[in-house]
Amino acid sequence: MTLVRLAAGFFGGLIMSLSSTHAETYQVLKFDDLDGWDRDDHELALEVFQNTCLDMQDPEWSSLCGFATSQPNAKSFFELFFRPVLIGGENKALFTGYYEPELRGSRQRGGRYQYPLYRKPSEIADGSLWYSRAEIEEQNLLEGRGLAIVYIDDPVDVFFLQVQGSGRVRLDTGEAIRVGYGGKNGHNYRSIGQELVRRGVYQSHQVSAQVIKNWVRRNPVEGRTLLQHNPSYVFFREVSKVPSDKGPLGAMNRSITTMRSIAVDPRFTPLGAPVWIEKGGKDPLNQLMIAQDTGSAIKGAQRADIFYGTGSEAGRIAGRIKDPGRMVVFMPIQLAYALAPGG
Q1: pLDDT of residue 297
Q2: pTM across the whole model
Q3: Whole-angstrom distance between the N-terminal and C-terminal Cα of the chain?
Q4: Helix, strand, or coil here: 319?
Q5: What is the pLDDT of residues 281-293, one digit of tens each?
Q6: Can you say how many angstroms the Cα of residue 141 is from the centroid of all Cα atoms in its chain?
Q7: In 3D, which of 122, 118, 144 has the Cα closest to residue 237?
Q8: Contact residues for 305 (Cβ-Cβ < 8 A; gap 6+)
Q9: CA-derived radius of gyration, the chain
Q10: Which residue has the higher pLDDT, 142 or 249?
Q11: Any residues with CB less than 8 A from the CB of 278 and at least 6 apart, and which?
Q12: What are phi and psi for residue 282, nearest 5 degrees?
C-alpha cells in the first residue's frame, strides 16, 4: 500500500482517473508475454514516441522522454523504463482502421462543389450539447454565417470525413489543403453500419465503409436519413501548415505516422503512451504503436483504431479492418505497479 500511496501522490489525478473511475482489471505482464516483441522495429517505434512525448505533462513521462531523445538503444529503452500493463484483459480487443481521406473541393461554391466543411460556431462551448446532425442539416443552421472552409463535391465524403476527423482536400486550382478536427456538437456517435444491420439491409460481416458509401449513393433520399441517424456533427479547422510529407494532426496536435499511430480512449490509455497490439484477422499485426489520437467511436480499454495512411488505397484497407486481439499499454514502472500492486 505504501507504493500505491507514493505513486498516487506522484502521478496525481492519473491514477485516480485510471483505477478509481473505471471498474477495470490491471495486470502487469513481462515482455516475454508479448507475441513478436523481439521481431519488431523498436527504433521506428521509439522515433514515433519521440514525436509526441515532449507534450506529455506528467513528470514521470517527461523524464522518460528526456532520456528517449538521447538516442538510446530502442529495445533496451522500452524494457528498462516501462512495464506492459494489460487493462481490461477479460475482454477481447477490437481493432478497426482509419485513414486520411483525400477529397475534391473548391474555395468557392459552384458547379459540383456544393457541400461545405464548416468551422465550429463561436457559441458552441467545448463539451456542450448543440443541435443534432438532422437539425443542423434540415434547418440550414450553418448556412450564410461565413463558416465554410471549403466546398466538397460529394456529401457522402463529407460525412465520412467527419467520422475520420481529418483529411486532405485537392482543390480545383491544383493546390491541396489539410483540414483537422475543430470540435463537435456534443452528441454521441451512432454507428451507421449497425443501423443498416438493424434494418436488415446487410448482415454484420458484410458491412464496411465502402459498402455504406455505395448504399448511400445508390439511395440518396434514404441515405440522407441514414446518415442523420448519427446525431454527432464534427467541425473542422484548416491545418495546411503541416508539411505534405508528414501525416495529419492527431489529438496531440502532432503529425501521426502510418501503421505506428493509433486512436484510443484516453480514459484508459494515456495519449502519447506506447501500446503493444496483437491484432488477429486476415492480416495479423503484432507491433508497438503509439497512442496519438482519439475518435468518437473509440470507447473502452481494449479498443483501438489503427492509422493506415492517406488516400483511397489506405481507405480500402482501413475499411476492412474489424479484428479481435489484445492491446497492452506500456506504463512507467512506478505507475504500472501502482495500478496493479500485486502484478
Answers
A1: 82
A2: 0.73
A3: 13
A4: helix
A5: 999 999 999 999 9
A6: 28
A7: 118
A8: 95, 96, 97, 98, 262, 263, 264, 293, 295, 297, 298
A9: 21
A10: 142
A11: 34, 35, 36, 93, 284, 285, 286, 325, 326, 327, 328
A12: -65, -35
